[in-house]
Amino acid sequence: MKTAPKSGFAARVGIGGPVGSGKTALIEKLIPILHARRIDLAIVTNDLVTREDAERIRRSGLIDPARVAAVEAGACPHTVIREDPTLNIAAGDELEAAFPGLDLILFESGGDNLASTFSLDLVDWWIFVIDVAGGDDIPRKRGPGVVRSDLLVVNKTDLAPHVGVDLPRMLAEAAAVRGGRRVIATSLRFDHAVAEVADAICEAVLLTK
Ligand SMILES: Nc1nc2c(ncn2[C@@H]2O[C@H](COP(=O)(O)OP(=O)(O)OP(=O)(O)O)[C@@H](O)[C@H]2O)c(=O)[nH]1
Ligand SMILES: [Mg+2]
Fold it and tell me: Where residue 47 falls among pLDDT bands split at 50, 70, 90?
């Protein structure tokens, strides 16, 4: 559902999920697809006590490094995307001031647990990324991130045969606990279904595809 941007004009989309599920990898794969659609983009990353993910994206050559901002949470990552998102809101506002034509800002949360959610003071819409290597029981555990996110991404599908995961069952259980809200299975390693995630973002917050 399209909602009004939280401040300024750029739509703000959160990307959360457990440590190592593929949040930064998703951003790296989305950037060229969104650029090809002429979407004016910036990124805010969150790490515990470093700027590691921001530096990784800046070094990637995928986007102007000035369009990548870093927030150091200094505490459990959800505190700065939910309880007090002031630092992230300010980072988004600074990017909008520096790049007045911005259409979209992606906010990557630091890796967190299944209870992690985004404040709707910060984002218009948010994605939760889990991966098959975390176990096919993750959806059944009904964490708020899995249940309440606008889009659930189940990543690393290429690893399912190697970790004994029944992927169709995992996806069916994910759909069931989400009451029909969208689930997309990706393999970022093999660029599988990234365009579908881009479509979902564009449809939800940019009214375009
Ligand atoms: N096999 C496989 N590996 C993947 C896939 N997506 C990501 N990875 C790998 O998983 C690891 C973690 O990916 P990241 O993108 O850094 O994960 P993250 O969620 O940003 O991690 P944190 O920010 O530390 O929480 C990296 O080694 C990636 O190369 C995938 O679809 N398949
Ligand atoms: Mg990351």
Answer: confident
Residue 77 is encoded by which pair of tokens?
């990552």
CB of residue 77 inside a 6 A radius of ligand 1: no
Alpha-helix runs per DSSP H in the chain: 23-36, 52-59, 78, 86-98, 144-148, 167-177, 194-201
Residues near 137 by Cβ (< 8 Å), separated by ≥ 6? none
Q: Which of 71, 63, 125, 77 is nearest to 93 (CA)?
A: 71
Query: Is residue 133 in contact with ligand 1, taking CB distance under 6 Å?
Result: no
Angle between helices 23-36 and 194-201 (to 10 degrees): 70
How do residues 126-158 score in pLDDT, each as one tens digit?
Answer: 999 999 999 999 999 999 999 999 999 999 999
3-state secondary structure of 109: coil
- Per-residue model confidence as pLDDT tens digits over 186-196: 999 999 999 99
Tokens of 125: 């819409």
115 Cα distance to chain centroid: 15
CA–CA dist 167, 76 (Å, integer): 30
CB of 23 closer than 6 angstroms to any ligand 1 atom? yes
Supply the pTM of this predicted model. 0.95
Residue identified by tokens 């939910």 is: 82
The CA-CA-CA angle for residues 34, 119, 184, to 5°, reads: 45
